[in-house]
TrEMBL record:
Belongs to the peptidase C40 family. This is NlpC/P60 family protein. It comes from Roseibium aestuarii. Keywords: Hydrolase, Protease, Thiol protease. Gene3D superfamilies: endopeptidase domain like (from Nostoc punctiforme) (3.90.1720.10), SH3 Domains (2.30.30.40). The keyword Protease applies.
Length: 288
């Protein structure tokens, strides 16, 4: 098996690989895979099928997940459709796929059993979650989107899948104060690269999940001196960390220093991070 296949992005194991890799790798068997959909608010994705294994990332409600193997213990191994991340999730968090029409634009929003905010909600979904709208209703002057699964959401919290925000950095700024959570990808807790991924998606940018992946292929690599005249939206990378420029003197990042999504002065952050955390900046990239 080629060492060039990153296990986070390629469904390849010594005993099993996706059918698309047949002839490219050696594996005990190859599987076509079947498409499923996340039916929990979010679903932890792990490297190994064990509850005590650390979480790599999270799948959001409505995202697709291609399953290549399921175990009797209730685990499914596969690949997330939104960013290609590979790993194990709980099988009971997956259901039959329904074609999405909208995604959640609010930081988070409730799903109700009917079109009435006075009903006890059935779940709380975060920005970037995808839903299938099949109808609409109005209750006491508030418009609701009726979903294919029989639930309802406040309509103004949703946008069509092709909606593009004019300033995705402003979306990232809406997360200020959100707790830092390693591998988290929701508005209840997320890490540095998830903040960038989720917010940039609203601006039409599909970025990979982890900071090293984003550093390797997001936008255009800027040359030396980029931080002398940075622009809003420039991504600043360290080994294992990413932040976004909000103005020439400020960054925004989900970080373990404040344990929140927070602003930090650029010069102060460069000094602090360089001395105590991730070392020197490794790259600055600009999205189109």
């Amino acid at each position: 098996m080629s060492a060039s296949f990153d296990r986070r992005l390629h469904p390849v194991r010594p005993d099993l690989a996706a059918r698309a890799y047949e002839g490219r790798v050696e594996a005990g068997r190859f599987a076509e895979g079947g498409e499923r959909q996340v039916v929990r608010d979010c679903l932890d994705l792990r490297r190994d099928p064990r509850p005590d294994c650390g979480v790599d990332t999270q799948a959001l409600f409505g995202e697709t997940f291609t399953v290549f193997e399921e175990t009797p213990e209730g685990w499914a191994w596969g690949q997330l459709g939104s960013d290609g991340y590979v790993g194990w999730v709980a099988s009971d968090g997956l259901g039959d796929p329904v074609t999405p029409t909208h995604r959640v634009r609010a930081l988070r929003s409730f799903r109700y059993p009917g079109a009435d905010l006075r009903l006890p909600p059935v779940s709380l979904v975060s920005m970037g979650s995808e839903v299938s709208v099949v109808g609409q209703a109005t209750t006491r002057g508030l418009d609701y989107a009726l979903l294919a699964d029989g639930t309802a959401m406040v309509a103004k919290h949703l946008v069509p899948l092709d909606h593009v925000e004019p300033d995705w950095v402003a979306v990232a700024e809406e997360f200020v104060g959100t707790p830092y959570l390693w591998a988290g990808r929701t508005s209840l807790g997320l890490d540095c690269s998830a903040l960038i991924q989720v917010a940039a998606r609203t601006g039409g940018h599909r970025l990979l999940r982890d900071s090293d992946m984003q550093e390797a292929g997001s936008g255009t690599l800027l040359g030396a001196g980029a931080l002398e005249t940075p622009r809003r939206g420039d991504l600043v990378f360290w080994k294992g960390h990413v932040a976004v420029i909000t103005d020439p003197e400020t960054i925004l990042h989900a970080n373990g220093y404040t344990m929140t999504v927070a602003y930090e002065g650029l010069k102060a952050a460069l000094a602090r991070i360089g001395a105590n955390e991730f070392g020197e900046v490794t790259a600055v990239r600009r999205l189109p």
